[in-house]
Write a structure and sequence with these properties.
The protein is mostly beta strands. The protein has 1 helix and 4 strands; from the N terminus they run βαβββ.
Length: 86
């Protein structure tokens, strides 16, 4: 089975980075991934990666869009295939 990683990244509205981080950490998924990790970056960005033992095109649950007033733009989403660790 392939390992696929889903990336969810959002930019908070001015000064609302801590709220967006709290929202993302509390957002649940219908199925628990193999691994889930949350990151922050300058510019009030929040990134959530989830790892799944599934094919690349599998129908997997994703974090939803946060409330519109909490972000400056729509969420960016990407899907990656793992090629192992070096």
């Amino acid at each position: 089975m392939t390992a696929v990683t889903l990336m969810w990244e959002a930019r908070a509205a001015e000064g609302r980075g801590p709220e967006l981080l709290a929202w993302a950490r509390a957002a649940g998924l219908a199925v628990v991934p193999r691994r889930r990790e949350t990151f922050t970056a300058p510019g009030d960005r929040v990134l959530v990666l989830t790892w799944w033992d599934a094919p690349y095109d599998a129908d997997l649950p994703e974090l939803p869009e946060p409330p519109a007033d909490l972000v400056t733009r729509p969420v960016h989403r990407w899907r990656f295939t793992s090629h192992g660790t070096d």
